[in-house]
Amino acid sequence: MAPRKWNRDNWPIAAAMIQYPNLLPDGRSVQDQSAEEWAATLGDVVDAGFTELDPTDSWIRLADLSRDRLEEFVALTRSVGLTIPAISTARRSLIDPEHGEEYLAYGHRVIETAAAVGAGSVSFGFFGPLTEAQKKVLWFWTVDGLKNPDDAATWNTAISRVRELGRHAEELGVEVSLEMYEDTYLGTADSSVRFVEEVGLENVGINADIGNLIRLHRPVEHWQEMMAKVAPFAKYWHVKNYNRTEDAASGLIVTHPAPLEFGVINYRAAIRMALAHGFQSPFLCEHYGGDGLSVSAANRDYLRRILPREEGL
Predict the structure, then answer these.
(1) Torsion of CA 78, 169, 280, 59, to 10 degrees
(2) What is the dihedral of CA 199, 200, 205, 206, to 10 degrees?
(3) Which of 51, 186, 267, 301 has the fewest CB atoms within 10 Å, i.e. is most exposed?
(4) Signal peptide: which range, if any (predicted)?
């Protein structure tokens, strides 16, 4: 892939669509909406000032649209001034015990779709669906979810499947970013680095979504130590932040979502660490709770203030 050179004015910073479910109140799927209905949702994104969109597959599965419907969606995004720099997948683990092979085939379709719509990055993860217990609480990360098995054979299957996707993506000029997420094979900085090094492909790196770990109500590695380890491997990056309070005397840990510039992770420092290692990938702004799209828009503006003024700096 040719090197990309961006500055704070043109760096692709996409809106996540995690605020919008795939299933509608009337029982229909977003997959089956009309272009006019899609436009109403995309209008929110445009009104928030975004020029880039990640059609996160928790909202719409572009890879499962027919060719005509995909062209209709892409034409719509262009007509409202949006581009698609990346596509993220969620809760479709390549090692799911029931659907792993199905999700592997889906991953190949995602890569092909990304290339077809001009997206240079895709994000995959090994986190599974929310458990019933997680669905019942205010913040799902306060309850333990599904865990990747501590099993060499499953680890090797994960490596093999990511390597297969990575080679396909390499042929199409697409980068693969693997999302950090608790209790998965990318659940710590050390295991994330070990995983991508074992995959061994230049276009496969780490989605340094350390917010997924900082929010946990358990002891975690300091964000700065995590970033120091994963920065050399950082690719397409989901950014979000949290406030975190730790009471050493009682062991109490409490977290909640925060705008990017106000949380415990210093993204000015974190991004500079990645830039020092040549980071040249898009960002995705996401936020849980409240009007997450508007908070993401504020986060986008913050990123534009702290990214390099000139290309290559």
Answers:
(1) 50
(2) 50
(3) 301
(4) none
